[in-house]
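Give me structure tokens for this 177-residue protein.
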Amino acid sequence: MQKQTSIIIGLALIAVGLLFLLLQAFPDVAARVDFTTYWPLILVGVGALFLVAALLGSAPLAVPGSVLTGIGLLLTYQNISGNWASWSYAWALIPGFVGIGVMLMGLLDAEHREQVSEGFRLLLISLGLLVLFGGIFGAFGAYWPVLLILGGILLLWRGRPHGKNDNDRITPSNKDA
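Here you go.
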């Protein structure tokens, strides 16, 4: 696995180096390529190489592959749209990118199978943070306090007593005990 990882990372470095060397050798081509807008796609490409390496047998490379790809796509969106203010809540997606990578690693390698649920849990936490911070920082307008109320209701619901034999519940029969 170490050998495959070195090969994939080496190929990625060669590909990126060749791209920049060609752009320096042919400045007229470089002038036509709008790097000011699409530079994050380099991250997407490197992340895709890591994901290919994960598919070819180096399953742990799915984690950096999904993180690089996700951040590259996020930055591409922000660069094209000019919506840089969305970073105030979009950063919460980064743990979700890690979670996706962990899930992929678990699906691709039986040795890491138990980590699929951990990756899914991390993805859910990330989405929850996105909703929370998106609400606080303007994505949901003036209604973000509703998210806090719903979160409180969810916590109360999860902490409720379960069943008739729950000793945590105060009843007339166990109040004096």
